[in-house]
Design brief:
The protein has about 750 residues and is mainly beta. About 10% of the residues lie in helices and about 45% in strands. It has 3 domains: about 80 residues, no CATH class; about 290 residues, YVTN repeat-like/Quinoprotein amine dehydrogenase (Methylamine Dehydrogenase, Chain H), CATH 2.130.10; about 325 residues, 7 Propeller (Methylamine Dehydrogenase, Chain H). The strands form 15 sheets. A 4-stranded antiparallel β-sheet has the order 1-60-59-58. It has a 4-stranded antiparallel β-sheet with strand order 2-29-28-27.
């Protein structure tokens, strides 16, 4: 391998290690898996370059019988090449972030009531600052970097020592939540903005209040953000009426009002030379204004949801914005041209900042993470495919060759299971899609939407065949009959409808529910229909349309219920504090058994393929296995650290696949209850499914990512090699030495 190829390979491995550092710290045993899953596309889709040549012998060895099992990601995620590192440690939404003046430290504030300090170069968490009793809304470094300022929901500001994390002073005076805070350029004055409709100036040294501003102006709006001008003589504030105000620091006098946004001004900033003002708004736009006159220069459009934060680069040439559409955007300040979009967060992006040297970007998000990005890359090595928002449902076709996913972006997507390639997008619904399914022969796709319609599509071409109209409310659930001749739908209009699949003709309407119908299903023999409202399960005769029986409940039923594989039983769970599972006899409607967990909400449940076991997933992060006949708890599976949102049995009943709200996807061996496979997704996982033959699994997350994973080397049949064996097998010596140096430095920093 020549020097250029070696350099390219080193850069690829370095970038992959950086992006995976937060995962490998907690799960070092997945080093090979995660490195391969990232590096397999480093040479482009054809995969014939230097990195591929290094990976090929490893892949061959790792796919041999007896090798350590791993999960092979077949499709690429929605993550920009510019991403360097993810900082993970907060337990709730990250609300604000900032760089230290020397760019060496990162500061974050969170809804978990804490602030955290991190090393920029390594992403290592240095310390946690505790003192606020509730959410911390804003944070900032002093100009010399020695102090940290924070603003909280508890009506206070906190002043902290950067070196020790010690709280020096709590500043009280506001009578409402403090939304924003800032140091003056000389570090002597502190500025704060509050829900009590005031701006306050404080002495940094003493915490003494200097002046209150805005009482006479903010009588019908809330001050959301505040900032000093670069020379420290002016204050800029943005409010909930879409107005910016300029104030004189020395007198507190209102100099100018700038009105132009149609939504809340959530963030604002001066350009480094103080001549321009930048504002971000809930009207999905940014605006640039002349500071001297208040004249609007231009509007930056491109985000599809609220713009929550904005900043100028240190040289004033670039603009950065963060939005609730889960993205950041970089713009040219002179022209307003959008340069590129940064994707990687899986929930709303709440805050953003340039590093003082202008080389890095920092972002904070509702997905509980911060992310560091490179400014200078300026390129995408691939097109990012996938949904633009939450993927809440995915399913394999009956032959296992296709995967269907449904997103909150009003679309369905079809993917090749073997390659993970997106084949086509099904567009036509005008509102969110609630449910989707393949026909039993796999030739048709059915979808149900809030737009009150169902749609039938050809799976091979993606062509819309017909729209089924008739419901007076959003359609929440849909299903094909086992023979594929009938379609069933459930709606917010309190009815179910039966349709002919061939013609789309409405056959009958089932009336009897007294509120929205959230779920419907055919029995395995196709003779019965099960439906679920808020407090009732109902069984109907397909042929006559008559209500057979109602299964009453004194608690709200949660989203999941279904028939056992033989159709003899019905399983449901309750949305209540004790989260009980209930087993009913389908023929009589009698309650057979209650499985009382006594703690944690149940979020998902399933029958094993033979119907002998029941699996439940809980908000407390555990899964439980139960005997169907006796109701006896067999085993508790522990390993998730967040609530488990979905679970499934493999077709042979030997494995379990589960997904949680932290993005962790785990494969379990039923016989032992051990976790034998782990994949860290980027966002909160919404669904978990096996392929029909059990060799693949799929899941979707809140960020629009679909994960198609092939099970390589399962079930576990021998002792797994250690992580270090990766460095002594197949890799070139020069690359082994490089990885060893990184591994040694990494262990030294974290131990």
């Amino acid at each position: 391998m020549n020097r250029d190829d070696q350099q390219k390979t080193l850069e690829a491995f370095s970038r992959a290690l950086g992006k995976e550092a937060h995962n490998l710290k907690e799960h070092p045993n997945i080093l090979w898996q995660q490195m391969y899953n990232r590096l397999q596309w480093a040479d482009g889709e054809k995969g014939s370059g230097a990195v591929t040549k290094v990976l090929e012998p490893q892949l061959k060895a790792r796919s041999m019988p007896g090798a350590r099992p791993w999960l092979h990601l077949l499709n690429q995620t929605l993550e920009s090449y510019d991403l360097i590192r993810t900082l993970k440690g907060h337990t709730r939404e990250v609300t604000s972030c900032a760089f230290s003046p020397d760019s060496k430290l990162v500061l974050s504030a969170s809804d978990d009531g804490t602030l955290k300090l991190w090393e920029t170069d390594t992403g290592r968490e240095i310390r946690t600052l505790r003192g606020h009793r509730k959410r911390v809304n804003s944070c900032a470094f002093s100009p010399d970097g020695k102090l940290i300022l924070s603003a909280g929901l508890d009506h206070t500001l906190g002043l902290w020592e950067t070196d020790t994390g010690k709280e020096i002073r709590t500043i009280r005076g506001h009578t409402g939540e403090v939304n924003s805070c800032a140091f003056s350029p000389n570090g002597k004055i502190i500025l704060s903005a509050s829900w009590d409709n005031t701006l306050k100036l404080w002495e940094a040294d003493t915490g003494k209040e200097v002046r209150t501003i805005g009482l006479e102006v903010y009588t019908e709006s809330i001050i959301l953000y505040c900032a000093f001008s670069p020379d420290g003589k002016l204050i800029l504030s943005g409010d909930s009426n879409g107005i910016l105000n300029l104030w004189e620091v020395e007198t507190g006098k209102l100099i100018r009002t700038i009105d132009g946004h149609y939504g809340d001004v959530s963030s604002c900033a001066f350009s480094p030379d103080g001549k321009l003002i930048l504002s971000a708004s809930w009207d999905n736009t940014l605006k640039i204004w002349e500071a001297d006159t208040g004249r609007e220069i231009r509007t930056l459009k491109g985000h599809t949801n609220y713009v929550r934060s904005c900043a100028f680069s240190p040289d004033g040439k670039l603009i950065l914005s963060a939005s609730w559409d889960n993205t950041l955007k970089i713009w040219e300040a002179d022209t307003g041209r959008e340069i590129r979009t940064l994707k990687g967060h899986t929930l709303r992006v709440t805050s953003c900042a340039f590093s003082p040297d202008g080389k890095l970007i920092l972002s904070a998000s509702d997905d509980n993470t911060l992310k560091l990005w490179e400014v200078a890359i300026g390129r995408e090595i691939r097109a990012l495919e996938g949904h633009t928002s939450r993927v809440f449902l995915c399913t394999f076709s009956p032959n296992g060759k296709l995967i269907l996913s449904a997103g909150s972006d009003n679309t369905l997507k079809l993917w090749e299971a073997d390659t993970g390639k997106e084949i086509r997008t099904l567009k036509g619904h005008t509102s969110g899609i609630n449910s989707c399914a393949f026909s039993p022969n796999g030739k048709l796709v059915l979808s149900a939407s809030w737009d009150r319609t169902l749609k039938l599509w050809e799976a091979d071409t993606g062509r819309e065949i017909r729209t089924l109209e008739g419901h007076a409310g959003g359609v929440e659930s849909c299903a094909f009959s086992p023979d594929g001749k009938l379609i069933l739908s459930a709606s917010d209009d309190e009815t179910l409808k039966l349709w002919e699949a061939d013609t789309g003709k409405e056959i009958k309407t089932f009336e009897g529910h007294t509120n929205e119908v959230h779920f419907c299903a055919f029995s395995p023999d196709g003779k019965l229909i099960l439906s679920r409202g808020f407090e009732q399960l109902k069984l109907w005769d397909v042929e006559t349309g008559k209500l057979i029986r109602t299964l009453e409940s004194d608690e709200y039923l949660a989203r999941s219920c279904g028939f056992s594989p033989d159709g003899k039983f019905i399983l449901s769970f309750l949305l209540c504090c004790n989260a009980m599972l209930k087993l009913w006899e389908a023929n009589t409607g009698n309650l057979i058994r209650t499985f009382d967990r006594n703690y944690g909400y149940t979020l998902s449940c399933a029958f094993s393929p033979d119907g002998k076991l029941i699996l439940s997933a809980s908000k407390d992060g555990t899964l439980k296995l139960w005997e169907t006949d006796k109701g006896k708890e067999i085993r508790t599976l522990t390993g998730h650290t967040w609530e488990v949102s979905s679970c499934a049995f493999s077709p042979d009943g030997k494995l379990i696949f589960s997904a949680d709200q932290d993005g962790a996807l785990i494969l379990w061996e039923i016989a032992t209850g051990k976790a034998i496979g782990f994949f860290p997704g980027l966002g909160a996982a919404e669904c978990a499914v096996f392929s029909p033959v059990g060799t693949m699994v799929a899941s979707g997350d809140t960020g629009g990512n679909l994960y198609i994973l092939r099970l390589v080397g399962f079930p576990l049949n021998q002792r797994s090699p250690s992580t270090d064996q990766l460095l002594t097998h197949c890799l070139p010596n020069w690359l082994k030495r490089y990885l060893n140096r990184i591994r040694f430095a990494w262990h030294r920093r974290n131990n």
